[in-house]
Amino acid sequence: MERNIILITGACGQIGSVLTEALGERYGKSAIIASDIAEPIDFDGLFEYLDATNYDSLEKIVVKYGVKEIYHLAAILSAKGEECPTSTWRTNMDSLVNVLEVSRRHRIRKVFFPSSIAVFGKGAPLHDTPQDVHLDPSTMYGVSKAAAENLINYYHKKYNLDVRSLRYPGIIGYQSLPGGGTTDYAVDIYHKAISGEEFVCFLKQNATLPMIFMDDAIRATIELMEAPRESLSIHTSYNLAGISYAPENVAKSIRKYYEDFKMIYKPDFRQQIAESWPRSIDDSSARRDWGWKHRYDLDDITRVMIEKLKEKNAAIV
Question: What CA–CA distance (Å, rounded) separates 118 from 277?
């Protein structure tokens, strides 16, 4: 039987670093090729330097290893994307076109592409945002993701390419530092809490947004990629939901462990981005098509984040 070799672009990022380890545990590390423009830290698997905006470099790796699946995670995120919108567009779109073209030409079996709730704008209902709704994103990151959803649907229709995608909400994880997203406060706040520091939040205290724990996000990704193709009805990107909460809810949950935890609010440009996004997501299509169900609520997230970050700090000392 032909071996299923998996290439991950953006493997050193917030999601990529965790997904790479999870895929290695599931399929064997020798089946995973991690790639990025940054050098990995404490990584003991196969790694290739790759700028995914360079088609020839991407194709060389695909041919060299006989890649059969690609998880394309390389991208510039929402907050950083607003600092240089044109670079965000070029990076996000050029790299995706390259992945789709190399997949078409070299008969890649499956491709994963992460979309985001950033595709939604003021035209979408704020509560229980449905799967099929007008997309009018307010950031270049969201614009690139919305365009990408149409592009992967085009490759599905024209070339029968099996591309699968999730609209991730904000992701909270202990495994890596924030990577430049509008929801990154929900990661950084735990780092400050266990260090006994005051946290300055760049969103308003009641800025409710859809969030998901990293373990749930990784499980959703793998479950979607392992689902039978015939069971999937969405070929743009599936809505994905965990739980919805505001910064004040996180602070309250943290104070169950650190009673004196202090948090102040200094909203900046990221508050405007957050206001254009949904408060909650309807992910019934994912639940119907491939049995998706989240496992972690806010107090579960807080408990695990504090436990794991304290373990990491103890290991460093």
Answer: 6
- Dihedral of the alpha carbons of 199, 204, 209, 213, in degrees to the nearest 10: 0
Active-site choice (71, 141, 190, 296): 141
Residue identified by tokens 């990076």 is 91
d(CA 170, CA 279): 11
Owner of token pair 């290893």: 65
CB 213 within 8 A of CB 167: no
Output the six-digit token pair for 246.
């505001």
pTM of the entire predicted model: 0.92
Residue 49 Cα distances to 35, 40, 71, angstroms:
6, 10, 15
3-state secondary structure (DSSP) of residue 207: coil
* Burial class of residue 71 (count of CB atoms within 10 Å of its CB; 0-12, 13-18, 19+): buried
- The question of whether 71 is a catalytic residue gets the answer no
Residue among 199, 281, 216, 289 at smallest CA distance from 245:
281
Cβ distance 162 to 156 under 8 Å? yes
| pLDDT tens track for 213-249 | 999 999 999 999 999 999 999 999 999 999 999 999 9
Q: How many CB atoms lie within 10 A of CB 150?
A: 10
Place of tokens 């098509």: 289
Helix axes 298-316, 247-254, angle to 10 degrees: 60
